[in-house]
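A.,

Following up on our hallway conversation. Structure tokens first:
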């Protein structure tokens, strides 16, 4: 029989305590990420309905009136409060739109800059976030009946919380080869979508964070749904071998695979080895994220929300929690945000 002396027992106890602290620290090494579609202030229903008619300016006039009523500053303030409550390390933003006006398509002055409004609102709350990267997507300007041109720039953005020890390197962005093009009297309007990626280090752990927004679909146009699936395939293929990785964004693909956005893009991601974080810890809760409200007077308005199209996909993490953000009124956007706490 082995007999331990008091000194040996003391050393053994101290060693076990130190090992427990180390294990606990490793187990508690987490990163919090969030995705949010900011809502451009219009569903562009008026613009698209009148675009290829004899009176295209009517659609732009009505769109202009829609965005004037969108309360961008107020919604940005609400979103800033939601971000301040969650304090995510990284935020994936979609539809961080820049609206502008001017006498011509190349002579534009900012009207509403959703990104700057959000940064200002965060700063007013003492929340220090910096822009990691901006991906400029659809950029166009169309004339109103007054002769003034209304400019529209769609953007995806990644924000990072300062003062949290994040190290960010290898920032890159891409536009999907699969791209929608809409005919107009002034020529085709390209509607590109894409992704932003960055390698992030936190507490000695490194992972890749990706922000994306896939193409919206339209009833009766299955070719656009196929285009979206092609984008999902590009996205999944771009990060083969990347580990661990988080892909967060608006996929415009309903997780329940029911109409109206019944596409296979979610299946593409899960088949590529990504885990949809929401159902892992929210068993039986459908977690619908859209629509919290409607803007398009030309579309049917079934009661919502009825789709979960905003996702956090991960590979290589432990999922601690996933929550919907801002899904109770008053709303910062027509989309609820999603935030996840992930363990290394």
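Then the amino acids I'd put at each of the 344 positions:
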């Amino acid at each position: 029989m082995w007999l331990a002396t008091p000194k040996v027992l003391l050393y053994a106890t101290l060693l076990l305590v130190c090992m427990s602290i180390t294990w606990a620290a490793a187990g508690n090494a987490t990163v919090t990420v969030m995705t949010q579609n900011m809502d451009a202030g219009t569903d562009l229903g008026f613009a698209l309905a009148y675009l290829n008619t004899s009176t295209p300016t009517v659609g732009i006039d009505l769109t202009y009136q829609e965005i004037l009523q969108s309360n961008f500053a107020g919604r940005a303030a609400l979103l800033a409060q939601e971000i301040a409550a969650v304090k995510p390390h990284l935020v994936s933003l979609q539809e961080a739109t820049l609206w502008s006006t001017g006498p011509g398509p190349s002579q534009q002055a900012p009207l509403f800059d959703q990104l700057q409004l959000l940064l200002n609102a965060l700063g007013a709350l003492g929340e220090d976030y910096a822009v990691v990267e901006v991906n400029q997507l659809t950029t166009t300007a169309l004339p109103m009946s007054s002769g003034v041109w209304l400019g529209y720039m769609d953007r995806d953005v990644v924000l990072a919380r300062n003062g949290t020890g994040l190290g960010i390197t290898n920032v890159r962005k891409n536009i999907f080869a699969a791209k929608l093009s809409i005919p107009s009297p002034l020529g085709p309007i390209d509607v590109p979508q894409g992704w932003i990626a960055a390698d992030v280090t936190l507490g000695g752990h490194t992972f890749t964070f990706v922000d994306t927004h896939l193409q919206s679909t339209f009833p009766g146009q299955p070719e656009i749904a196929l285009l979206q699936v092609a984008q999902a395939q590009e996205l999944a293929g771009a990060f083969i071998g990347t580990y661990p990785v988080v892909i967060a964004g608006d996929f415009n693909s309903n997780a329940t695979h029911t109409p109206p956005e019944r596409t296979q893009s979610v299946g593409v991601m899960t088949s590529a080895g990504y885990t949809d974080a929401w159902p892992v810890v929210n068993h039986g809760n459908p977690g619908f994220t859209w629509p919290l409200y409607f803007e398009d007077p030309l579309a049917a308005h079934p009661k919502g929300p009825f789709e979960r199209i905003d996702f956090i996909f991960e590979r290589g993490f432990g999922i601690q929690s996933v929550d919907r953000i801002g899904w109770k009124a008053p709303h910062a956007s027509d989309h609820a945000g999603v935030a996840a706490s992930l363990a290394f």
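The CA atoms of residues 117 and 276 lie 31 Å apart. Curious whether your intuition agrees with the design.

B.
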